[in-house]
Amino acid sequence: MTILSGLKILDFSSLLPGPLATMMFADLGADVIHIESAKRVDLMRIMPPYDEDQEAYMHQHLNRSKKSLSLDLKTEGAVTIIKKLLKDYDIIIEGFRPGVMKRLGLDYETLKAINPKLIYCSITGYGQTGPFATRPGHDNNYLSVAGVLDHSRHKGKKPVSMGIQIADIAGGTLHAAVGVLAAALHREQTGEGKYIDVSMTDAVFTMNALYGSQFFGSGRNPQPEEEILNGGTFYDFYQTKDHRYFSVGSLEPPFRKLLCEALEIPELIDSTFNDSHYTQMRFKEAVCDAFKSKTYAEWLEIFNDDFQGCVEPVLTFEEACDHPQIIARDMLVEVPKKDGTTQRQIGTALKFDGVKPSYRFVGAKLGEHTTEILKEVGYSAEEIAVLTETGVLQ
């Protein structure tokens, strides 16, 4: 038995935040049906590169272990199918703009009347209320509005486009997962369902926890490259002689001592404890000069597995896949495909004693499980044929 066995979810979401959340649930044993439409194809399905069957690798990862039900939600027949599924699938996750699910007749208030235990989570950029509620946006927009990007850059430089989606994942995915599980616990205790309004902008705004608290207490607005963790100290990234990089996070005194010894600048150990900005910048320059004196490979020998001073190489993704820590933590997994082969994917980060995650199959073809799902809720072959002919099924 897996951790979330018995949890049944209808996933109306697309792109990244919602699908990654429901993938996490599926990895832990939840049954997830992905509600899709041939008329509104998920970008994750069509974004290259593709496998030999022209299926996008992104889709096959994000939608692993989920069944696919393809419906035209604008039809009355599709709404009827959803309402029948609600008897068992009593958790909904959706990512439409506010008002869309209501226009379809699939909003929380309508569906709660059918199943009062319903847990319903909406993930949007700005939330269900406020002047930006219906405003379109993407990850960099939410980070901008939340006041994150301005102080997350170097002086005189533009904000950096992140290689990962911070607002989407840390803001949308993880907050939705926490919210749904909190609501499930509440339902277990009271029998009552809940509506969850996840705003990715709200979520990333809370990530200003360190500098935000300082601002409210002192009135000091966080500035680019002037704070302890954004380049205002030696906590930073340093280029080697051959233009690779190392991350240095040696903030605590014992780690700073080890850093100075490794860089062969022991005479600067005492100055690292001087809080003056001038002294901090002089020390940072010394660290920068030291790193430029050796190649990446030479520094790897120095900052080896035995070094305990919080210095690590900046790895490429390919290098990270070969890192012994990543391998030891089962972060690379083989997920079954229909042809009997497997596809390598990123595994779940959640570890439980005595329980293994469930990687059942890669993301399914559009509507692959439609007939199977409808038969499970009582539709006959003849009824399914009619639904297909009338365009309810796609």
List keywords for this structure.
alpha/beta, six-stranded parallel sheet, three-stranded antiparallel sheet, 13% strand
Topology overview:
Layout: E1 8-11, H1 17-27, E2 31-36, H2 43-46, H3 57-62, E3 67-70, H4 76-85, E4 91-94, H5 100-103, H6 108-112, E5 119-124, H7 139-145, H8 166-190, E6 194-199, H9 200-205, H10 209-218, E7 236-239, E8 245-248, H11 253-262, H12 277-291, H13 296-302, E9 311-313, H14 317-321, H15 324-328, E10 332-336, E11 342-346, H16 370-376, H17 381-389
Parallel strand pairs: 1-2, 1-4, 2-3, 4-5, 5-6
Antiparallel strand pairs: 7-8, 8-9, 10-11
Helix pairs in contact: 1-8
Verbal overview:
With 394 residues, this protein is of the alpha/beta class. 37% of the residues lie in helices and 13% in strands. The protein is built from 17 helices and eleven strands. A hairpin with a 5-residue loop joins strand 10 and strand 11. Helix 1 crosses helix 8.
Helix content: 25-40%
Oligomer: single chain
Strand content: 5-15%
Q: Give the ordered list of helices and strands.
A: EHEHHEHEHHEHHEHHEEHHHEHHEEHH
- Form type: elongated
- The pLDDT mean sits at 96
Task: Give the biggest sheet.
Answer: 6 strands, parallel
- The strands making up the biggest β-sheet line up spatially as 3-2-1-4-5-6
In angstroms, what is the radius of gyration?
Answer: 25 Å
Distance between the termini: 34 Å
The secondary-structure class comes to alpha/beta
Low-confidence stretches: none
Q: Strand tally, please?
A: 11
What is the number of helical segments per DSSP (H or I, 4+ residues)?
Answer: 17
